Amino acid sequence: MAKWLKRDTKHAFVKRDSIVEKLAKVRGVKDLGEWFNPPERYLLDPYGLENIDEVAQRIIKAVHTGEKIVIMADVDADGVFACAGMFNYLKPMVEADRLQYIHSQRSRGHGVETVTTKFARSGNGVVEYIPDDTDLLIIVDSSANSVEACKYVKEEMGIDILIIDHHHIEMDNPYATMVNCQMGNYPNKYLSGSAMVWKVCHVIDDYMADDRADDVIDLATIGLISDMMSVRENENRHIIHHGLANINNIGLLQLLKLSKVDLGEDISTTTISFKISPAINSCTRYDRIELALELLTSDDIDEITMIAKEMIKLNEQRKAEESTIVESALSRVDNNHNVAVLVDNEIGSGFRGLVAMQLVSKLNKPSLVLKAFEDEDGNVTKYGGSARSIGNLPLKSICEDTRLFNFAQGHEGAFGVEIDADKLDDALKKFDEMIDDEDLQGEIYYDLELDESEINDMDMREIEKFSRIAGQGFPVPKFRVKGLVVDSRDVLGKDKRTIKISCDNGMACMMFRVDENYAMDIVEALEDDETFMVEIEVVGQLSINKFMNWKARKLVVTNQVLLDDYKIV
Ligand SMILES: [Mn+2]
Asked: Contact at 8 Å (CB) between 209 and 231?
């Protein structure tokens, strides 16, 4: 059972504080008006980005002199949005044969080397290499550290290179002009590749007395969300707020429509992360990135519809494949230590992280999903793959502290590892010493504790507004709700594995993707209790569910808790 932990409040409550005011104080939000409607002044001066002037002017020169401009996408969702943003922005200014985008595929790795015939590795899917007649190569969202390949492109192919990026720069790259929020003193270090492109477009606008950069703010926004950049950062909040309200890319609109996302109140960072980013990521996982790029850059609605349907199908296929892999993974995983390990060479690199994440949630412990590397004689020499932690356990640091891994790279909770084959057992034993049962208990943080009688409809609407822009740096608000009396527990269709616990105040407690035994103790308690009074206490997200009852011809509005956990009182 997970621990329920209350977040400390950043500012002290006063007696008259409403629920929403208290919530703002817990989260350190000072001005609710600005929080819900981030003002223009949150945008930082684009000229504060080193080299942005030079980059914008080089692009303008190419536009004016009819040079051939080629944009290289990176093989992830942000990379796709960054590329489509740059391409769509430049398209009205440039002859069709003077502008092109190119891409690699995920199985071939990141960076400009993957689209350079001299360096490219083999892999799957179609790769569009740098054309020989390119004059200006604009690389978005990758390649800051691809020095060798940049040298080749610049010196051997005679192509000027601009790199618009947000990743950390590890080495000097004198062969490209770079604009990157990690360079210099630019205060917002959490821009995405797509948002960096949008900043460059603003400067081009400036020089050309135009104002079209905001035409691609939707793409900047979805890239920011997909790359899980901080939504706590004021500049990012401004971009996301306006981007979500101004989605006009017809490919994106069609994908949203076919994914059954209502463009009105529905649209939030959560809907984007659950419906849109995975559809784009499925293309890259299956080495079909060209679909996503075509969707976002085409203006042929028939073609767009066809692609959007195919992407949704691909995403369904990805989900099905993922659950098959997870099922088989669960039957074979080594679950004898405090960190679970699965070695499986069949799981593609695009799936290892997903499977590890699923193992964490099913086994309630950190998990490694690894591939075995063999030498010429077929002896396993090392393992490499994905690691995922549980709760706030700093698993990456723990791996480093064992001094057994060749590397652990990425975030504390989600990262890549490599270890020599003969050291894996020692590492598992070390984990058992370094991680105790206490660490393995999940933790659920909640913001406020409420009695069900305190919650009114107006509060519900205000609380929901907090969830519109939530994510990295500002998780969705959670509440501990007391005093709920259970009416019934229904299973709403076994396939969907959704469970609904109805309470007598009209509140419904929902849990998605659980097995059918979830909350069985409530059913048993209902059967045992002669008064049919079972009281529960829950932790979860408060949300309003609206649906049209066509038979009765009316809109049904119910308050619900999206459950993280419950207790019978
Ligand atoms: Mn990125």
From this structure: no
